[in-house]
Amino acid sequence: MMLGSDVSGLSTNAATAAAQGLSIVVPVYNEAPGLAIFHDRLNTLAETLKQRHGLNCEVVYVDDGSADGTLGIARTLTATALDVQVVSLSRNFGKEAALMAGLDHATRGAVLFMDGDGQHPPTLVETLVGHWIDGGFDVVYTAKAHRDDESFLRRQAVRGFYKLINWGARAKIPADAGDFRLLSPRAAAALRQLPERNRFFKGLATWIGFKQLRVDYEPAAREHGVTSFNPRQLIGLSIEGLTSFSVAPLRFASMFGLLLAVGAFLFGLSILWETWITGKSVPGYPSLVVGLMTIGGVQLLMIGIVGEYIGKILSELKARPIYFVAEHSVKRAPENTAVSTTDRTAAE
C-alpha cells in the first residue's frame, strides 16, 4: 500500500510547458473599482507570455462574497487573450478558501496566485514564469524585499511569528513570503492532494518541497480602497498558521510549566531553609495568593493553547466543505475555442 503520492510523471521542462499552459488564480473581495483595469493588464501579460513562451493562459477570478459590484464587473470581463473563469462563492469563506477554490477550478498545468488589488505587479509574472520554464523551479515565490515602511512593532511581531512557527520545524516557512507565487504542474498537483480543511497556504506550498526559489520585490501601493485585513484577522491568520504547522505553542507551554515547577520547588526549599536555620516562618497569605494567581493564570493559558489544537481536530473530523460555489462561468479566448468543455473537465 502506497502511503505517499507519485507526481513525477508531470514534467516541468520547457518542451512541455507550452502544452500545459498557465492558470492565473485571482481571489477578489470588494475590488470593483480596479478590476477592469487589472484585467486589461492580464490580457497584455497573456499576449506577452504567448509570444515569448508559447503559453496559453487563463484567469480564474474567485469572488469571495464581495459586498460591492465585483461579481457584476467580473461577469462582463472579456476573454481577449486568455480564457476567463468567474467562480462566485456562496459567502465570504476567507482568502485561504478562495485560493483553494481557484486551485480546484484551474484547468492549465502551472498555477499562479496573485491578488487583484494591484500590489502584485503583472510585469513580475514574466520573471516567475522564466524561472519555472528556463530554470526548472517548481515553486517560485515572492517575498517583500524590506519592511522599512512598517512600524517597529509590526516588524518585530512578524519576525517573532516566523521564529516561533519555524522553531523545531523540518520544513521552514520563508520569512516575509507571500501568496504571490507560481507552482509548476507537479507542485500544483501535490498541493491539491493535501486534505486538511484548516489551510495555511504559505506553509502548505513550502511543505510540499520540490525545487523552490525566492524572488524579492517591492509591493506596489494599492490603487484603490484599503486592505480588508485588520489586526484581528492578521492575528487569527497567525494562530491558524501556528497551530497548523508548528507544535511550538505546546512546547512553549511545557517549558513554561517546567520553569514554574522548578521555581516553586526552589521557593519551597528557601522556605524550609529559613524555617530551619532562623526559626522564622515566612508569612503565608501574600505568597500563597500570588502563587495561586500565577499558577491559575498559567493553567488557563495552557488550556487555551491545547484548546486551539483540539478545535483544529474537531474541524477536521467534521469534514465540512472548504467552500461552496454559487455561480461559475467560463469564457474562451478566440484562439482557445478549440479546447472543448469535455477536455477542461478531464483536466480537472
Tell me about this structure.
Residues 338-348 have low confidence and may be disordered. It is elongated, with a radius of gyration of 25 Å. 50% of the residues lie in helices and 15% in strands. It folds into two domains: 14-228 and 321-347, Spore Coat Polysaccharide Biosynthesis Protein SpsA, Chain A (Alpha-Beta Complex), CATH 3.90.550.10; 248-318. By secondary structure, the chain is α/β, with parallel strands linked by helices. It has an eight-stranded mixed beta sheet with strand order 7-5-6-4-1-2-3-8, with helices on both faces.
List the keywords:
8-stranded mixed sheet; elongated; alpha/beta; Spore Coat Polysaccharide Biosynthesis Protein SpsA, Chain A; 2 domains
What Rg is obtained from the alpha carbons, in whole angstroms? Answer: 25 Å
- Weakly predicted, low-confidence segments: 338-348
Helix content: 40-55%
CATH architecture name of the largest domain: Alpha-Beta Complex
Sheet of most strands: 8 strands, mixed
Beta-strand proportion? 5-15%
Query: Helix/strand/pairing class, anyone?
Result: alpha/beta
Question: Could you write a compact summary of the structure shown?
Answer:
50% of the residues lie in helices and 15% in strands.
Topology, please?
Blueprint: H1 14-20, E1 22-28, H2 32-53, E2 57-63, H3 70-76, E3 83-89, H4 95-105, E4 110-113, H5 123-133, E5 139-144, H6 152-165, E6 177-183, H7 185-192, H8 201-207, E7 212-217, H9 231-245, H10 248-278, H11 284-318, E8 325-331, H12 341-347
Parallel strand pairs: 1-2, 1-4, 2-3, 5-7
Antiparallel strand pairs: 3-8, 4-6, 5-6
